Amino acid sequence: VKAIYVRSGGGESALAESEEQVVKNIGASASSINYGNIIVDSGTTDTYLPGTLYESFSGAWKEMSGGRSYSNSPMELSHDELLGLPTVLFQLEAHTDSMDHRILEVSN
């Protein structure tokens, strides 16, 4: 993970839906993001970041959500409130080492 951003105005895509949406880098270096335990799994609802990022992430979240503090506790939201929560964007870096050639073979 190269960088983490929080975008205002919610949405269901990585693409911004309007020009009013603001994107804020949480300001953490790639080494601090990738230090220790980090899990970004699009197949589950869980994402784990190093505890050292809590302050910068929660600050960006609060700013992009219009003052709503970040919480890991369950909460009740309407559909519109849910879609209005900030979008978290992860910038990934491409793998530069060559892959195992056997993975790339296609059999007919």
From TrEMBL:
<dbReference type="GO" id="GO:0006508">
    <property type="term" value="P:proteolysis"/>
</dbReference>
<dbReference type="InterPro" id="IPR001969">
    <property type="entry name" value="Aspartic_peptidase_AS"/>
</dbReference>
<protein>
    <recommendedName>
        <fullName>Peptidase A1 domain-containing protein</fullName>
    </recommendedName>
</protein>
<dbReference type="InterPro" id="IPR021109">
    <property type="entry name" value="Peptidase_aspartic_dom_sf"/>
</dbReference>
<dbReference type="GO" id="GO:0004190">
    <property type="term" value="F:aspartic-type endopeptidase activity"/>
</dbReference>
